[in-house]
Amino acid sequence: MLSLEQIVRDPDKFRAALVRRGENPPIDRILELDSSRKALIQQRDVDRAERNTVSRAIGEEKRKPTPDEIVEMRETGDRIKAVESDLEGVQAELDAIVLPLPNTPLADVPDGLDAKSNVIVRTSDGATDRYGSAHWDIGPALGILDLEAGASISGARFYVMKGKGARLQRALAAWMLDVHTEEHGYTEIDPPLLVRPETMQGSGNLPKFADNLYHDDETNLWLIPTAEVALNALHQGQIIDPGVLPLKYVAQTPSFRKEHAAAGRDVRGIKRVHQFEKVEMFRFVEPETSDAVLEEMVGEAETLCKRLGLTYRVLKLCAGDIGFQSAKTYDIEVWSPGSAEWLEVSSISTCTDFQARRNNTRYRPEAGVSTRLPHTLNGSGLALPRMWIAVIENGLQEDGSIVVPEVLVPYTGWARIETL
RNA sequence: GGAGGGGUGGCAGAGCGGUUGAAUGCGCUUGUCUUGAAAACAAGUAUGUCCGUAAGGGCAUCGCAGGUUCGAAUCCUGUCCCCUCCGCCA
């Protein structure tokens, strides 16, 4: 959520920032509503002060209220209720406007309204003119991926991994978690996958993106579309003690997405599915450090690609292409020889104080000073079926077998997936 | 699923419907004393919001949401969460 206070203080700045994202925010209406909100609060408080004074006096003097006082205070009470109901209406309209507004892009985010304006920051060494078989052919041929079984069990965009295929995915996840916990200093978390509406709202997924989320009506719980949702909520409503930040969390969870918006795209194979595993990094940091931390997290994700020997590139997303809650995002893409395209395997963002404000997560910089909002950052490290695709397609040998990257061998227990 | 008990400040823990934003203890901060520390003593120690340049002041908050009342931490209703026992279960 954007700060109402800051919008009111500098409306032009917010309008300009949101226009860069292709939004047309009703800033004038917000200003109008905010000033009537403030006026109503004042009216209400004057009446409440009056009521408190009279009640306190009656209590102090240990007497019964006079009939006049009772009548007068009833009127005051009615007036308070009337003003409160007006206030509620104003507040509801404000929420309805402000809650769906996305975060404002940082100054160094490139201009542009769609993916065409994203900037390639760097590309690793490695071939990008390499073509080969696609995972949807290789996987079934080796008996490690069964797309028909996925479809028959659950429908389109579901898959089944088998034997060494399943093991390879588990190895990838375990290895990535180990690198993050042992080398990058993250604390591993195993969070709930079903969350309350408040939690979904805190991350920014509700109310705006309900149509991409799975939901259980009976319990009113939502399936997470990424571990970010749960990790972000870890300190919901809390004031983090001095000296505790930065907090670094990593989790491997399934992600559940309806993918309505992407209907018809990436339909072959397992590039875009309704349920996939992902290792997610998440940090709570002091605002001053968040820019440097974002670069550091990109480096952490790159490390994984490098050690797997994959060709990858880093993109800086333009203002119109960053996610709702993001203020700046880098994507990491790996080369897929099979589909002859770059696959997005990581999206790393700083959400500045946008999520912290929504969640009411605060920290105290030092004892005795007032609280501040931390910045939150999240990033895939990395997304699984797509990394599986890259490893399979890049490891494909002349004879049809797959050689897996050396770093994974301790986790798989074997170095090669043989032909049947 | 059934039967009970409970949610109060950083923590523990009081709180007949009326000077209760909240006793007391612990913790923490500052000061006095001390060569220093400890002890003792004194003062301070929640969050949010509105007005105000500020000083300061108003209002709200005792899980959450409603209700009763001139007045609610206290009474009523709903709801969420936690604990204990029984049942069921990986």
Order of helices and strands: HHHHEHEHEHEEHEEHEEEHEEEHEEHEHE
What is the arithmetic mean of pLDDT?
Answer: 92
Q: What percentage of amino acids are in beta strands? A: 15-25%
Radius of gyration: 26 Å
* Name of the CATH class of the largest domain: Alpha Beta
Q: Percent of residues in helical segments? A: 40-55%
Distance between the termini: 54 Å
Class per helix and strand makeup = alpha+beta
| Arrangement of strands in the largest sheet | 1-11-12-13-15-10-9-4
- Low-pLDDT stretches: none
Shape verdict: elongated
Tally the beta strands.
17
Number of structurally distinct domains: 2
Sheet having the most strands: 8 strands, mixed
CATH homologous superfamily label of the largest domain: Bira Bifunctional Protein, Domain 2
Discrete helix count? 13
CATH topology of the largest domain: BirA Bifunctional Protein, domain 2
Strands, helices and their partners?
Layout: H1 4-9, H2 11-20, H3 27-60, H4 67-98, E1 119-123, H5 135-142, E2 145-146, H6 147-154, E3 160-161, H7 163-183, E4 187-188, E5 194-195, H8 197-203, E6 215-216, E7 221-223, H9 227-232, E8 239-240, E9 247-256, E10 275-285, H10 290-307, E11 312-316, E12 328-336, E13 341-350, H11 354-359, E14 362-363, E15 375-383, H12 384-394, E16 402-403, H13 409-412, E17 416-417
Parallel strand pairs: 4-9, 8-14
Antiparallel strand pairs: 1-11, 2-3, 5-7, 6-7, 9-10, 10-15, 11-12, 12-13, 13-15, 16-17
Helix pairs in contact: 3-4, 7-12
The protein binds one RNA strand of 90 nucleotides through α3 and α4.
